[in-house]
Amino acid sequence: MADGEGDPGVFTATALPGDPRLLPTLTNAFLGTRVFRDILHAAGVYSGAAGDTHRADVPSPLGLCMAAPGASSPAESFTLNTWTGTFSHTIQCPGYTVTHQIYAHHSLVHLMAFSITIRRLDGSTHPITVQLQSLFLPQSQDLDLSPGPDFQGAHYIYGQTLVPEVAGGPRPAVHMLWSPVPQSLALGGEERERCWQFLTAVAGSEEEAKRSYSAGLSLAAAGSLHRSHVRAWAALRRGCSVELDGPLALRQALHGCLYYLLSALPARDSPRAPFHGISPGGLSNGTRGEDYWGHVFWDQDTWMFPNILLLHPEAARAILQYRIRTLEGARHNAREQGHQVGPGPRAGPAPDPVPSGTPGWAGTGPCPQGDPGPGRHRTLGTLPAGSGGAGGSPPSSRVPEEGPRAAAAPWVCWGCEVSPPVPTGVMPPDEYHSHVDNSAYTNAVARRSLNFAADLARDLLLPVPEEWEDRARKIKMPFDEERKYHPEYDGYSPGEPVKQADVVLLGFPLMHPMSAEVRRNDLEMYEPVTDPAGPAMTWSMFAVGWLELKELQRAWKQLEKCFSNITEPFKVWVENSDGSGAVNFLTGMGGFLQVILFGFTGFRITSSGLLFDPSFPDDITKLKISSISYLGNKLEVTITREEIRMEVTEASQEPLAPALEAVLESGQCFPLGEGRAAAPGSAPSGNL
Q1: How far from 100 is each of 103, 111, 231, 397, 404, CA to CA, in Å?
Q2: Tell me, what's the pLDDT at 359?
Q3: Residues 262 and 186 both lie in one domain
Q4: Are residues 247 and 226 in the same domain?
Q5: Domain ends where: 577, 611, 645?
Q6: Nearest by Cα to 424 from 472, 376, 391, 460
Q7: How sure is the predictor about 401, in pLDDT bands with cuts at 50, 70 and 90?
Q8: Which candidate, 654, 650, 618, places its Cα nearest to that of 635?
């Protein structure tokens, strides 16, 4: 199964993987499926009582197989084109080809579509017939569905989920229209080529389903349905463009990660539907028993968010709005666990509503798939996004006034029964250890959140409670003065096995202040004891650490470990290198992208500027990132071994926006303006 033509963004194979979980996903902001699958999922549509809540299986008319009768051993190919967001299956027969093309429309987010095209290659005049086998049955284990009247030639079913998460709670509605699929299609004897198009519209209301289906029909009649999707998808890819010159496998991994992660983001021109977050396996996965049942964890906020913040601030804002929208569910969860929440002086931690499914779920039941449930380590990971992922700021200064208090409230009293305060009984990111005291990662997040809340309140001209910064100062950071490293928690013994990246996250993305010696010691201490069978995102953070220290070969060695989690031929990530855990593992992809966007560039978003300090492993010669979003500006940055070139491609429209300039550590300044490029010399470090 070889990749086609050397194009790093096109993955082609002559056979499908034996494990159907490794088939590529097709997703937009509202709908998702795996190719050749008989179900799809809709954002925010979950079924099952708390503890059993999972993405509701919606029957999919897109599950289809085709065959060319009478053809003897036809040549077949299967292609995922990440540039067009389209999957295709082509059968090459003597005298003709048949192509099945499928996609999740990227601007009409309630629409998915597929087409069958028969093309005659010779001068024959006999009819050509293709057989179609649909996997579709209009029924679901999770939905109470009823048939409705046909609409513009489409069949119609509608219904609700069977079981609400909370007794008496809402049961999300599903309305679906789809083009009926015949058992065969035939190209007439006088025809050279013909394309048949089939649409599926899914929405939470009959009105939206009909509107989307009608819009798709109009585009199809004009011959522009697929073209309109490609145009919208290409605009997103251009706006988040990352290119590098290096090994083909690295470039393929880069484009695969960009495809799967960008597919999960809300469309820029579809603001009406609320965003429902990004689960580890994405919207295409999450049925009962798979991929954490479609819930949203710290994976979104710690591992995916930093990349999104840098490239797509509108989507980053949608993620924060999703967390704000579900905040009341977190508070309810805290109350159920006996904690006091709210603005009072005795407010305790408000655990994130994790695993987070439908809006407001309190997460009180057992967490599926072996996750430790609504334990605090999941709560902590959601805070780096709200407090500025990758060491930075939220995507807009126009944050609700509740923002500072929401960031500070979990930490104002947690552990204050003793002095100095000791956060106790937590599970750090390392899931091999639970109920520990003074987790280094937990305490760093707590300190950061309190200080961020204070800074944000000042920016918004709000009063800053004295206890916020006082509490931050008193939080203990475990540190071994003799060995000069951070123990993972009180009582950690060097050499104890660790499941995944934990203390190494202090250096990045938390940017906890430490010397290069301590940073190195943390990496040296935890790299050999981290489980090689642990989850995929771990090695990315070790790679970023070694890049900080200019240990390029050690960084590359860690990055190479990620490739054991990338499956062929469609670059679908698995959570663990043995194939277990979640598939389409966006968490691992997010970590991998952070190596490229923050490791190779040295980008660090701080309150004073965007720092840069590039470093490449030997096999990489050039990195170009277009449309970096910074203070309302769009930047294009090109880094080679000889120079770093920066250009403002779109200037901020804010009336009092400051002019940008690149400032090197030497103090030399290079003004930046729209259409003006600055080349600050041989791979320098500095800030904007």
Answers
A1: 10, 17, 20, 47, 51
A2: 35
A3: no
A4: no
A5: 611
A6: 376
A7: low
A8: 650
Looking only at the bridges linking them, the beta strands covering 633-640 and 644-650 are antiparallel
Residue 378 in any domain: the answer is no
| pLDDT tier, 199 (very low <50, low <70, confident <90, very high otherwise) | very high
253's tokens: 């991994």
Query: What number of other Cβ atoms are within 10 A of residue 194's Cβ?
Result: 15
**Residues forming a β-bridge with 617:** none
Contact 297, 381 (CB under 8 A): yes
Cβ atoms within 10 A of the Cβ of 678, count? Answer: 18
Domain presence at residue 200: yes
What is the average pLDDT score of the chain? Answer: 87
Nearest partner of 581 among 204, 297, 344, 342, judged by Cα: 297
293 and 442 part of one domain: yes
First to last CA, the chain: 45
Are 546 and 558 in contact, with CB atoms under 8 Å apart? yes
Q: What whole-number distance in Å separates Cα of residue 347 and Cα of residue 363?
A: 20
* CA–CA gap between residue 500 and residue 591 (Å, rounded): 12
Q: Where are the beta strands (DSSP E) in 466-575?
A: 566-567, 572-573
Annotated active-site residue 431? The verdict is yes
- Give me the CATH number covering residue 537: 1.50.10.10
Note whether 224 and 167 are same-domain residues. Answer: yes
In a domain, 624, yes or no: no
Residues 502 and 564 in one domain: yes
In angstroms, the Cα distances linking 339 to 342, 347, 349, 386, 405 are: 10, 8, 7, 22, 17
- 3-state secondary structure (DSSP) of residue 248: helix
Q: Identify the residue whose tokens are 């540190």.
A: 479
Q: Where are the beta strands (DSSP E) in 121-233?
A: 128-134, 143-151, 154-161, 173-178, 184-187, 193-203
| Residue 382 placed within a domain | no
Provide the number of structural domains found in the chain.
3
* 637 HSE (CA, 13 A, CB side): 32
Domain residues for the domain of 637 are: 631-678
Q: Model confidence over 658-678: pLDDT tens digits?
A: 788 888 888 888 888 776 666
Give me the pLDDT at residue 335, please: 75
pLDDT confidence of residue 166: 87
- Lowest mean pLDDT of 31-35, 331-335, 437-441, 502-506, name the range: 331-335
Torsion-angle region of 466 (φ positive above 0: left; ψ -120 to 50: alpha; else: beta): alpha
Cα distances (Å, whole numbers) of residue 615 to 19, 412, 662: 38, 40, 18
Q: How far is CA 283 from CA 157, 278, 291, in A?
A: 21, 7, 10
The residue written with tokens 């024959």 in the block is: 124
DSSP β-bridge partners for residue 96: 93, 120
- The answer to whether residues 471 and 595 belong to one domain is yes
With H, G, I as helix, E, B as strand and everything else as coil, classify residue 169: coil
Does residue 570 register a pLDDT over 70?
A: yes
Cα(30)–Cα(204) distance, integer angstroms: 10
Annotated catalytic residue within 206, 328, 401, 431: 431
Q: What's the token pair of residue 2?
A: 């070889």
Structure tokens at 428: 């750090």
Weakest mean pLDDT among 227-241, 582-596, 668-682: 668-682
Tokens of 102: 């499928």
Alpha-carbon distance values, 422 to 408, 411, 412, 472 (Å): 16, 11, 12, 12
Contact between residue 623 and residue 593 where contact means Cβ atoms under 8 Å apart: no
What residues are paired with 173 via a beta bridge? 160
Angle at alpha carbon of residue 542, lines to 538 and 547, rounded to 5°: 145
Q: Are residues 198 and 317 in the same domain?
A: no
Do 596 and 650 have their domain in common? Answer: no
Q: Residue 169, Cβ neighbours under 10 Å: how many?
A: 13
For helices 538-548 and 586-594, the axis angle rounded to 10 degrees is 10
